[in-house]
Q: What sequence folds into this?
């Protein structure tokens, strides 16, 4: 079918007023809702690979590959998706696509130590085709074990001194493993604090929902799945980011609006809710309708979250979301409009010189009469 812009689809979904409109969209764009089974089958056909050959190439058993294709099973972890892609020697863009589209995991993130090593390996695949790149990744990762598993060493960062893309470019450009080691050592605090904004964002919402209480007390009071508590613990202690669906489920449990969940996904280095995914398309429709029906809830919620956050960046983001929701203008924007209207009025009115001069005191840059 003809390519459809994701942004166009996004606005079509959030502007649906009736469930029948959503059904029409789901039917119209059904070819976009591909699954992992179809993807793996296409890889085999394109490359002329059997279950056994694809498994050997990627480090999986024949039965595992067969389970993906015949039984529509999925790889059990983000690492397995990466392992599969490395076996096929995918480039960075291709691996990120598979992680996000099929695994519902975040793209490779240069500020996460494991991912930084992955990016390095992908950019320096072994020339010997018999060497499994994922095995090389495991070897290098073992050298950093003392950093990877350092628990509770988080230091508060007001903001990262390095941009994600700059770090990614540097890692890709390294000529040897020593340069990677030196870079990681130099930026140790950065790597120990990966995803700190995501953690702060979640904790602010937990406190807002639980009147300042902990996630444990929220779980107990609301009788929520305790798996969420473990998920948060793994994120805080080991930098282990949950998959996209679990993260979205957490956002819904914390009563986040559509905008807030998109912000949550952004902090996890993931794309916003995507209408080209059937489940996300439905979630997008539901949340958008809730937002329309309860506009004051969103603003009150964000104001409360902002009050509970100790991270100035989170506070700023909440304020920005409030502006986006309510159409509120910043003081600079208001001042700019005031200046415009005063100037326009002065130029339109036939005033006495004395009055004209007095009114110009309110204008930053004097204008000629």
A:
């Amino acid at each position: 079918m003809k390519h459809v812009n994701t942004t166009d689809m996004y606005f079509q979904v959030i502007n649906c007023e009736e469930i029948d409109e959503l059904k029409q969209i789901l039917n119209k764009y059904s070819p976009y809702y591909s699954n992992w089974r179809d993807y793996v089958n296409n890889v085999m056909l394109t490359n002329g690979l059997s279950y056994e050959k694809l498994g050997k190439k990627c480090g999986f058993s024949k039965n595992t590959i067969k389970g993906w294709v015949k039984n529509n099973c999925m790889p059990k972890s983000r690492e397995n998706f990466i392992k599969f892609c490395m076996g096929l020697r995918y480039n960075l863009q291709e691996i990120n696509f598979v992680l996000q589209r099929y695994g519902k995991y975040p793209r490779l993130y240069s500020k996460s130590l494991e991912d930084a090593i992955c990016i390095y390996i992908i950019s320096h695949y072994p020339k010997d085709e018999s060497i499994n790149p994922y095995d090389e990744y495991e070897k290098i990762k073992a050298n950093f074990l003392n950093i990877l598993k350092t628990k509770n060493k988080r230091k508060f960062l007001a903001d990262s001194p390095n941009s994600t893309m700059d770090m990614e470019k540097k890692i890709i450009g390294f000529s040897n493993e020593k340069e990677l080691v030196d870079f990681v050592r130099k930026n140790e605090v950065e790597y120990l604090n990966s995803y700190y904004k995501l953690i702060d964002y979640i904790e602010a919402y937990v406190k807002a929902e639980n009147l300042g209480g902990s996630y444990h007390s929220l779980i107990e009071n609301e009788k929520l799945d305790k798996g969420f508590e473990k998920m948060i613990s793994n994120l805080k202690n080991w930098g282990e980011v949950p998959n996209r669906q679990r993260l979205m489920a957490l956002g819904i449990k914390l009563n986040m609006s559509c905008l807030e969940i998109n912000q949550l996904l952004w902090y996890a280095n993931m794309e916003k809710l995507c209408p080209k995914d059937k489940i996300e398309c439905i979630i997008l429709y539901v949340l958008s309708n809730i937002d329309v029906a309860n506009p004051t809830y969103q603003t009150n919620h964000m104001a409360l979250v902002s009050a509970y956050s100790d991270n100035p960046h989170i506070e700023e983001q909440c304020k920005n979301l409030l502006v986006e929701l309510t159409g509120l203008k910043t003081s600079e924007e208001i001042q700019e409009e005031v200046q415009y209207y005063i100037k326009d009025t002065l130029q339109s009115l036939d005033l006495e010189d004395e009055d004209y001069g007095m009114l110009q005191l309110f204008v930053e840059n004097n204008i000629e009469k």
In short: Residues 108-194 form one domain. The mean pLDDT is 77.
